[in-house]
Amino acid sequence: MGSRQGRFVVQEHHARQLHYDFRLEAGGVLKSWALPKGPSMNPAEKRLAVLVEDHPLEYLEFEGIIPAGLPGAGEVVCWDAGVYRLAEGRDLMERFERGRLLLELEGRLLKGGFALFHMKGRGEKSWLLVKRKDAFSVDHWSVPRALTGERKRALKEKHPPCEVD
Ligand code: MN
Each residue of 139-161: pLDDT tens digit? Predict the structure, then answer.
């Protein structure tokens, strides 16, 4: 396993369509993917990850209710956060350009090896996130819901530090 590369976050985003935003700190920005079904700890479940624009680092900490009328209007809460390492190569951007990232995640929910790779022939935005088989992988997994009633009541309306997806 290589050295620590940076932080990651997964945000549960209750926009018009509930989805999960996976963001990796790299090169002073957050490389970002939107996962319609969220991540999975089951290696048999390949999860679509739609590449979206880079987001500013401030977005790592963002939680709140994006006001109605703005893009992505709805609640955003942190679903998981932690650090990642590259399991292959040293430079995330170089791996990103090749369309294949092998990651080791150390989050509260996401742990161990993951592959994040571009699907050739499906346009530049279509990637897949897949758990690698290891000591942390499980055969049955469902995405736990982060936005409990209690957390929802504590959230405030807040403008995000950038346009959101
Ligand atoms: Mn989003």
Answer: 999 999 999 999 999 999 998 88
How far CA 121 is from CA of 112, 126, 127, in Å, comes to 28, 9, 11
- Alpha carbon of 92 to ligand 1 centroid (Å): 22
pTM above 0.90, yes or no: yes
**Cα maximum dimension of the chain:** 44
**94 token code pair:** 């170089």
Q: What is the pLDDT of residues 59-93, one digit of tens each?
A: 999 999 999 999 999 999 999 999 999 999 988 99
68-102: b (≥16 Cβ within 10 Å) or e: eeeebebbbbbbbbeebbbbeeeebeebbeeeebb
* CA 10 – ligand 1 centroid, Å: 10
Instruction: Look up residue 4 and give its two tokens.
Output: 């620590």
Cα 160 to ligand 1 centroid, rounded to whole Å: 11
Alpha-carbon distances, residue 41 vs 32, 44, 120 (angstroms): 19, 9, 24
**Cα separation, 86 vs 93, whole angstroms:** 11
